[in-house]
Amino acid sequence: MRAVVARSPGGREVLALADVPDLVAGEGEVLIDVVAAGVNRADISQREGRYPPPPGASELIGLECSGRIAALGAGVDGFGVGDEVCALLPSGGYASQVTVAAGLVLPKPDGVSLVDAAGLPETVCTVWSNVFMLAGLQQGETLLVHGGASGIGTTAIQLARALGARVAATVGSDWKAERCRELGADPAINYQASDFVAELLSATSGHGADVILDVVGAAYLSRNLEAVATNGRLVVIGLQKGATAELNLGALMAKRAAVLATGLRMRPLAEKAAIVASVRENVWPLVAEGHLKPIVDRVLPLAEAAEAHRVIEASEHVGKVLLSV
Ligand SMILES: NC(=O)c1ccc[n+]([C@@H]2O[C@H](COP(=O)([O-])OP(=O)(O)OC[C@H]3O[C@@H](n4cnc5c(N)ncnc54)[C@H](OP(=O)(O)O)[C@@H]3O)[C@@H](O)[C@H]2O)c1
């Protein structure tokens, strides 16, 4: 099969299309003929050698894909050869075929093209598991999502709005703020031009955010504590601006708030399968009804994976960048 390999840890130039050995579905797995693969910021860390795949997983980059089932391993129920699906992957998506545990596979939702479906599993599973399953965002509450124009952010805005929450978002430019407003964010705050804490508190009459989904990390920890509401939940899922910061426990106590942090890829298979099952039950109907769409910035051929990484590194995109196979 064909795949994008990273010849060594490094810059975009290490990525190259190559022939690699064919795959066989093991027990409990399906083999998928990949139609498209989602590109995620974590892929850049893996390319650079800073985010290795879990033990036993493919060394190839790629956390999600869509395609058609080509073969079923022993003991797989509920899917058939030829089914159009998308899947959450521990790695291996930048390839013409993948094998994946059947519990991480979802049917292609109605109303979404098979290519665009590649942009759903990683962001939807991350947002659903953190904002709803973990932080328990309720109808009428306010969610603050940092990086509102990212793959994660565009998903969080739509999903929280669909379920009756108010959403505030931060972005680094006015044009991205406009795109977030179109998706339902209010306010969408350009963090380069104004203070996001002041803007959020002003927009919520001093209440703040009941849930914060943070992709920035250390640099925002103290500001997030100022922005979080009493009884609020701060969920850190990205460390783009550092992993280590001082936490004022007095401020946390005064607000009776919680600080949570999770990573999806390293969770045990059973936990990821439970998230995928919950997404299928709770989120897939919203996709089918048009309340949540994959926001696809561009689709590039698999051979242009390096260009896809350039776009993400430059943060030129809104939503997802996909690779067509
Ligand atoms: N823990 C997990 O399980 C998990 C799973 C999936 C993703 N993630 C993380 O979630 C983040 C988003 O992933 P993605 O693939 O959707 O990436 P992406 O599309 O590349 O988005 C990254 C975003 O971060 C924003 N950003 C950078 N600095 C910021 C700042 N100071 N304030 C606010 N926003 C800032 C950028 O927005 P501007 O261009 O507007 O500045 C950009 O939109 C990444 O950090 C990724 O590692 C974590």
Low-confidence stretches: none
CATH domain class of the largest domain? Alpha Beta
CATH homologous superfamily of the largest domain - what is it?
Medium-chain alcohol dehydrogenases, catalytic domain
Number of helices: 10
Distance between the termini: 11 Å
Bound molecules: NADP nicotinamide-adenine-dinucleotide phosphate
Structural class: alpha/beta
The whole-angstrom Rg is 19 Å
Q: Based on the structure, what is the oligomeric state of the protein chains? A: single chain
SSE ordering = EEEHEEEEHEHEHEHEHEHEHHEHE
CATH architecture of the largest domain: Alpha-Beta Complex
Question: Strand fraction band?
Answer: 25-35%
Number of domains: 2
Number of DSSP E strands = 15
In the CATH hierarchy, the third-tier topology of the largest domain is known as: Quinone Oxidoreductase, Chain A, domain 1
Global morphology: globular
Biggest beta sheet summary: 7 strands, mixed
Instruction: Quote the average pLDDT.
Output: 98
List the helices and strands and how they pair.
Blueprint: E1 2-6, E2 15-19, E3 29-39, H1 41-47, E4 64-72, E5 84-88, E6 97-101, E7 105-107, H2 121-134, E8 142-146, H3 151-162, E9 166-171, H4 174-183, E10 188-190, H5 196-203, E11 209-214, H6 221-227, E12 228-236, H7 249-255, E13 258-261, H8 269-282, H9 284-288, E14 296-301, H10 305-313, E15 320-324
Parallel strand pairs: 8-9, 8-11, 9-10, 11-12, 12-13, 14-15
Antiparallel strand pairs: 1-2, 3-4, 3-6, 3-15, 4-5, 5-7
Helix pairs in contact: 2-3, 2-8, 5-6
This protein binds NADP nicotinamide-adenine-dinucleotide phosphate.
NADP nicotinamide-adenine-dinucleotide phosphate binds next to helix 1, helix 2, helix 3 and strand 9.
